[in-house]
TrEMBL record:
This is Alpha-1,6-mannosyl-glycoprotein 2-beta-N-acetylglucosaminyltransferase. Its cofactor is Mn(2+). Pathway: Protein modification; protein glycosylation. Mn(2+) binds at residues 240, 352.
Amino acid sequence: MRHTTAADVRLKRIPRYVFCFLTIFPVLLMLFSLPFLDELAEFNFQRNVSKSMSLYNLTEKKYDDSNRRRLIEQISLFNKEQKVKNEEIFGTLNNYSLVIVIQVNIRLHYLRYLIRSLGQAQDIDKALLVFSHDFFDENINHLVNSIKFCKFIQIFYPHSIQLYPNVFPGQGLKDCPRNSTKDEAIQMGCLNAFNSDRNGNYRNPQLCQAKHHWWWKANRVFDLASLQSYKGLVLFLEEDNYVLKDFIHVLKLMEEITKYSCRHCKLLAMASNSNTEAYYKAAMQTSKVAITDRFSNYGMVFNRSVWKEIIKCKYSFCFYDDYNFDFSFRNVFLSCMKESHFLVLYAARVFHLGAW
């Protein structure tokens, strides 16, 4: 694997499925190699804590129909209001800012770690956090509303299982049990007996909700009133991610690279999908990024113009037989946006705590 310069990248086409490592010019080398020993030690502590903790179980209230209708109305009002908190302190959004979208389910302890890491990040006061929830919970709302280090907004997925537990997208009375065989499903006469997935399983509402929520969230974010004129970068995180202090600074450097050496790159990623342990260790040992067509869903970043291209490929996402968003999103680039390449950071600045 040969190291190439930025000039080399401009002069020749990068072959598919081959990493072409880009050596950053000296000032970037210096900035990428700043000491992060204390922070990496803190991250390692959080990772070990996450290993030993059981998942935080939120006990869902047993709503009757009237209470559920009130919750639906309340969520609808939240989404219509589009209230940006702390905007009077940190000012309005501009194209030099960063929008960070966080998909939130129910794992409160992971979300605490993510918010803590965001609060320690350099230049976070210039960012807008968008928390997209598919579960309405007072404890989670209290945690989010305790944020004082930047402006933020909450949006709520209006088609969640919490709101519709007994009809689609929840588990309807006539839906086939997930682990039923096809013969069993036909014998039961359930509605989707002839529509199992490629592995022979039937729909699991909790798993499918992540994909439905992701697509709704992405559409919703670019339609928010506060983002109507925003053309800058949008970073997509999940509740069980963890960021390093310089992630915004490094992201801005990656953006500069795309302007001069990777104009064909549609998506930036702040970590690779490869062995995360190895990428954690590499954070102090390398200053490289990679231009590649290997998709990574860790810390995905793109702007409005790329989103418009993705929207045109909606069928590649929505009809791909996968319950989660990441493989479906990868299919968009494999089957529809085929000439796309990605700029992937070798020394990760976003980590996935939930996998450990």
